[in-house]
Amino acid sequence: MTLRRIMQNSVATLPDSGSIRDAARLMHQNHVGSVVVVGRDKKSALVPVGIITDRDIALAIGDEQNFDANSSIKNVMSPNVLLCHEEDGVYRTIQNMRDHGVRRMPVVDKQNHLVGIVAADDLLNLLGKEVWSLSKIAKREAENEDWLERKKAPKSELQIAH
Fold first, then answer.
1. CB atoms within 10 A of CB 111
2. What is the pLDDT of residue 48?
3. Amino acid 153: pLDDT
4. Which of 26, 27, 51 has its CA nearest to residue 38?
5. What is the rounded distance in angstroms from the CA atom of residue 86 to the CA atom of residue 154?
6. What is the mean pLDDT of each run of 10 residues along the chain (162 residues)?
7. Does residue 41 contact residue 11 with C-beta atoms inside 8 Å?
8. Measured between alpha carbons, how far is 11 from 24 in angstroms, rounded to an integer?
9. What pLDDT shows up at residue 131?
10. Own/partner pairs for 67-73, CB < 8 Å, 24+ apart?
11. Nearest to 112 by CA among 55, 56, 36
């Protein structure tokens, strides 16, 4: 399954001229834990240039000496944002998240234009549903075995069972 099928198409974004306060407000308004920092390419399409997370803001607040909510998000964002492509598979994305210690990845198309975001929670939700579906296989298999046993049973046993 590709990320296109499970990614969130609506992405909270800010230009790199935004403030930490702007990012926090956007996260609060959209009930999300990250804001993708974007620039524009020659076609004016959004291109990810960084990401700021609720954790980045919390760590900045923890450093009370240097914290100013009106300062630029450039001061706390991760500029080397790890991207994934809409055609990437779930397994590869999970590996990348694990290998790089990130929970959210902006999703881009072939031109590196922002098209969505995928979070570890999205992947957990998908995998949870798949595990549930797998658990139904055993139940179905048992039902099939019961049906076969009843079919093989002599008619006299079937009559007794009714």
1. 10
2. 96
3. 65
4. 51
5. 57
6. 92 95 96 95 90 92 81 90 95 95 96 96 89 79 68 61 54
7. no
8. 14
9. 84
10. 68/20, 69/19, 69/20, 69/21, 69/24, 70/19, 70/20, 70/21, 71/19, 71/20, 72/16, 72/17, 72/18, 72/19, 72/20, 73/14, 73/16, 73/18, 73/19, 73/20, 73/22, 73/23, 73/35, 73/37
11. 36
For residue 135 the two structure tokens come to: 């658990």
Residue 84: both structure tokens together: 């994934």
Spatial contact of 118 and 7, defined as CB atoms under 8 Å apart: yes
Please report the pLDDT score of residue 162 as a whole number: 52
- Can you give the pTM of this predicted structure? 0.79
Q: Of 83, 69, 66, 60, whose CA–CA distance to 11 is shortest?
A: 83
The burial class, CB within 10 Å (0-12 / 13-18 / 19+), for 76 is buried
87/103 Cα distance (integer angstroms)? 19
Q: Is 153 helix (H, G, I), strand (E, B) or coil?
A: coil
